[in-house]
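Reopening this one. Same input as before:
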Amino acid sequence: MQRSYQTPHPVPDPKWQNREVSFADELAQLLPQDLPHRDNVIRKSALHLDMIVEINKVMNLTRITDPREAAIKHVLDSVLPWRLFADALHVVDAGTGPGFPGIPLSLVLPDVKFSLLEATQKKARFVQSVVDELRLPNVQVIPQRAEEWIHHNHADIVTGRAVAPLHKAFLIFAPALKNDARVLLYKGPDVATEITEAAPESRKRRIEFRILERYELPDSLGERTIVEMLRS
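Same output, byte for byte:
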């Protein structure tokens, strides 16, 4: 499904250090009006981004240094495909980094359990501090490598953003398919090239890729694609 997303009232892009527009204001402009629990998503996502700003002073969690771009690439990008996750009981975010897409999705879908996997201990501790501060009872942080956890545990959906090109993703996500989980991956505009590069290995493993959704981010910040990995 091709989706064109337009921002109603663009504003100038101030830097974090001298923000004239708060994260909450940016998110209020950017997030779709029909997003479930929208007000809560705005309030808590703004706090999440503020916490990233503070921790980024001592630990490099993200190279995105513009507040509007952060609101788009971190929060909006995470939640636009929320409907694909709405029927799950348990979603695993493999390699969550500073908490994306897991934390924004957990705010949109408070009745869904989310497990956020992050092998880097200092990142996992930061994400746990966010979960505690935002009081997210449906979220647990697991400081473990995704491939290890997935191999021994089950979830309805396993997802990840920018975790690996598809020809390397087999090592991480193939065990989830054996456990009857759906694997939904956030990818960029070059997904067709990635699928082609993965073809020899995917045929060998009887795995195929299906594009479920495409959407354009505002401010010409790029096309995103949700790809499902499944057994052929």
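So the earlier flakiness isn't reproducible anymore. For the record, The helical segments are 23-30, 38-55, 67-79, 102-108, 121-134, 146-152, 166-178, 191-204.
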